[in-house]
Amino acid sequence: SERLSWTAKEVDDYLKRIMNDIHENCVKYGTQPDGYVNYVKGANVAGFMKVAKAMMAQGIV
Questions:
Q1: What integer pLDDT is reported at residue 61 of this predicted model?
Q2: I need a labelling partner for 35 at 20 to 30 A (CA). Which of 3, 5, 9, 17 fits?
């Protein structure tokens, strides 16, 4: 453990950035032709893509 100490603002900013990235990925992968955003589908596809990219980077696939 690095025993880092974060201020409340740093934690809040970091979490907001994470949530924004999640939202953007859900929209990217879950937007349907009619414009509706299926957040469950988007989150599942984004998660799959993240794992697939990691596997490719390791030479597994």
A1: 78
A2: 17
Asked, for residue 32, whether it belongs to a domain, the answer is yes
CA–CA dist 41, 61 (Å, integer):
23
Q: Confidence band (pLDDT; 50, 70, 90) for 18?
A: very high
As given in the structure block, the two tokens for residue 30 are 């879950």
In a domain, 33, yes or no: yes
Per the CB < 8 A criterion, the answer to whether 30 and 37 are in contact is: yes
Q: Is 59 left (phi over 0), alpha (psi -120 to 50) or beta?
A: left
Q: Which residue has the tokens 């990219």?
A: 53
- Tokens 């597994």 belong to residue: 60
Mean pLDDT for all residues in the chain: 96
Mean pLDDT calculated for residue range 13-30: 98
